[in-house]
Amino acid sequence: MKKQKHDNAENDDVMLDDYIIPMLLEIMENKDQLTMVHSSRVQRIVDYFIPELLKHKIIKEKDVPDLWVSSILHDIGKIFVKDTILESKLTLSDNEYEHIRYHPMRGYRLVKQLDLPRKILLAIRHHHERWDGSTKGRFPAYPDGLKGLKIPLYARIIGIADAFDAMVSKRSYKKPIPVEKALKIIKAASGKQFDPKLADIFVNRIKKVLENRSII
Ligand SMILES: [Fe+2]
Predict the structure, then answer these.
(1) Which CATH number fits domain 10-212: 1.10.3210.10, 3.40.50.300, 1.10.10.10, 3.10.290.10?
(2) In angstroms, what is the span from residue 141 Cα to ligand 1's centroid?
(3) How much distance in Å is there from the Cα of 74 to the middle of ligand 1?
(4) CA of 32 to the centre of ligand 1 (A)
(5) Local confidence band at 216 (pLDDT 50, 70, 90 cut-offs)
(6) Can you give the pTM of this predicted structure?
(7) Which of the four, 27, 88, 97, 211, has the lowest number of CB atoms within 10 Å?
(8) How many A from CA of 75 to the centre of ligand 1?
């Protein structure tokens, strides 16, 4: 991780970068390699997104370190999810979905005790909310059913990168889908699952990145 100041005091930066964040990543990696790989990929995807977010004045340069940390830690709550569910090759039962959907809140409660910046806490808690606030269907909003701009900015950004990586990655229960198709799905879900302005910027940015190099 590149070293830059968090939106916090100097001593807190040392604690965060040198002790707290590496410790959390170590725990996450030990618990579940797949979640760690996914988190690193989401951080890399957010990295592709950042120049456009800066250009459109959606974030400022000083926001970048906290956005990186939010990206890598967004699924930290999965350390509390049962291995049998994380590793399941089968369609999950309603109870199992309920268990896994508790991970944003578990992650939020964990990092809250470590006194991380509030924007990071909120990104972890709200990365599975939906722009339309719908709590129905295959991809319901959780845990709070927030809607539109009430969803914290980093959570809206990470929500897109997270969904994109989930689609283009192989899982024990599914094949990866082509990047172009994933971008079409994100576009179609713009204004429903995703912040329309961010979804638009994301799709255009990834298309440009793909013109020059492979992203996966
Ligand atoms: Fe998640």
Answers:
(1) 1.10.3210.10
(2) 11
(3) 6
(4) 13
(5) low
(6) 0.91
(7) 211
(8) 5
Amino acid letter for position 154:
Y
Backbone angles phi, psi at 158, to 5 degrees: -65, -35
Q: What CA–CA distance (Å, rounded) separates 187 from 178?
A: 14
Per-residue pLDDT for 3 more than 70? no
Q: How far is the CA of 110 from the centre of ligand 1 (A)?
A: 15
Query: Which tokens belong to 87?
Result: 């590793």
Ligand 1 centroid – CA 100 distance (Å) = 9
Percentage of the chain surpassing pLDDT 70? 93
What are the tens digits of pLDDT across the range 166-191?
999 988 778 999 999 999 999 999 99
CA of 37 to the centre of ligand 1 (A): 13
Given a cut of 60, whether residue 126 has pLDDT beyond it is: yes
Rg (CA), the chain: 16
> Domain extents for the chain?
10-212
**Residue 17 DSSP label:** I
CA of 188 to the centre of ligand 1 (A): 21
Question: Distance between CA atoms of 140 and 70, rounded to whole angstroms?
Answer: 21
Residue 157 Cα to ligand 1 middle (Å): 13
